[in-house]
Specification:
Order of helices and strands: HHHHHHHHHHHHHHH
Helix content: over 70%
Structural class: mainly alpha
Strand content: under 5%
Largest sheet: none
Number of domains: 1
Number of strands: 0
Number of helices: 15
Radius of gyration: 21 Å
């Protein structure tokens, strides 16, 4: 129970951190800089997620000891360096020397190395350590960002400071992991054969993860192109609270991934189904709590946290929240397919969802503005949920039936 509580506290603090970073930027720099920050994330996240190959999840379900920590680390190092070069090149080609976008990309690059630490502790069933690390990041990031803004009034310098802080934390964690023998986080000689196999097996996951990342970022690309950076800042402020809640829910469901893999290996369908139901109930409970808070206090929260103009966007907040409820349920079912190592089917589901979202987004945004984006997301996520549910039921039943033979 103590492990779960720390994991919960850590993930909650990390999710809140994402939201509070944006609030600090809006308060000190306004919607335009918030839009730039959001654009930087929209550019870098899908690229890094592709090259990250969902290694953390693979570590969590790696029960047979096929790969060592060193194998995961060298793959992450190699692919992340390629990713950041790619990100900086795209920024220079499209936006020129926009250092805010570049520093956001580097921040995501540094952030990607925390994943392997989390994955290793997940393997060891020490999710409480994951929570403590996330809490440490939150409790140091927010005060430093606030103080740096207060002194310099510069988003650029603030991002540079965060990059340095996160690098120091991650470097310390890797040094500690290599020193403590029980963690088995040693950096052995490079095993080229294993690394090639790991990359080859992980490419479908990287592609699938990129598509999952593209789905929330496609609206940002469309808003930036059709409306502008200031509108992107407003959209980001509205959606970030919802995304932070969804990030928290995703982190909570990851807690069950290791246990799901064990039940699958032991062919215990009853316990596996109970875990899936528990995830759905917890997720819906968190969302209902958010709705219960916003119904009486929504306008007050948006006005206090952001600026008075944001109270006009409360209805928009509810539209996006409704769409994301569908996405949360769909993500839990996809997580179940991931535990079964049904990787390729996720690729097809996400590809279809992206195509649908792009088409509907272009059609609706030209006629309805940001409200059209909310409608496009709602239709896309509803379609995704229906398809995912049907596939999940069929594949799960087939999985357990096959192991009974």
């Amino acid at each position: 129970m103590k492990k779960y509580l720390w994991f919960l506290v850590g993930n909650l603090s990390y999710a809140i951190m994402q939201w509070l970073i944006l609030i600090i930027i809006i308060k000190f720099s306004g919607s335009y800089d918030a839009g730039l920050y959001s654009l930087g994330l929209a550019i870098s996240s899908p690229i890094l997620i592709f090259f990250n190959l969902q290694l953390r999840n693979q570590q969590a379900v790696e029960m047979r000891g096929k790969y060592s920590f060193a194998d995961f680390f060298y793959v992450r190092l190699f692919t992340s360096v390629i990713a950041i070069i790619f990100i900086i090149s795209i920024i220079f080609i499209i936006y020129g020397t926009n250092f805010i976008l570049i520093f956001v990309g580097i921040l995501k690059f540094v952030d990607s190395f925390f994943d392997l630490i989390y994955g290793r502790y997940h393997q060891l069933n020490r999710t409480d350590i994951i929570g403590k690390i996330q809490f440490l990041r939150t409790s140091t990031t927010l005060p430093l960002l606030f103080i740096t803004f207060l002194i310099t009034d510069s988003l650029l310098i603030s991002l540079l400071t965060l990059n340095l802080l996160w690098f120091v934390i991650i470097f310390s964690l890797y040094c500690y992991g290599s020193y403590v023998k029980t963690l088995n986080m040693s950096f052995n000689d490079i095993n080229k054969s294993k690394i090639k196999t790991l990359v080859r097996d992980s490419l479908p996951l990287g592609a699938s993860g990129t598509m999952v990342s593209l789905m929330p970022n496609i609206p940002k690309y469309l808003i930036q192109y059709y409306i502008g950076t200031n509108a992107l800042g407003i959209y980001t402020a509205i959606i970030t609270l919802i995304s932070s809640v969804r990030l928290f829910i995703n982190s909570v469901t990851q807690f069950f991934l290791n246990r799901m893999s064990k039940y699958l290996l032991s062919n215990d369908s009853n316990k596996y189904n109970q875990i899936m139901k528990k995830q759905l109930l917890i997720s819906l409970g968190i969302i209902l709590l958010l709705v219960a808070i916003f119904i009486p206090f929504g306008e007050l929260i948006l006005t206090t946290v952001y600026t008075p103009e944001y109270k006009n966007y409360l209805d928009l907040f509810y539209l996006f929240l409704g769409a994301h409820i569908l996405l949360v349920i769909s993500s839990i079912l996809l997580n179940g397919l991931f535990a079964q190592k049904q990787y390729k089917i996720q690729l097809y589901i996400n590809a279809l969802s992206i195509i649908l979202q792009v088409i509907l987004g272009i059609i609706f945004i030209t006629h309805m503005g940001i409200e059209g984006i909310a409608l496009a997301m709602g239709v896309t996520y509803c379609t995704q949920l229906i398809i995912t549910s049907l596939i999940y039921i069929k594949r799960t039943r087939s999985y357990f039936d096959a192991r009974k033979l």
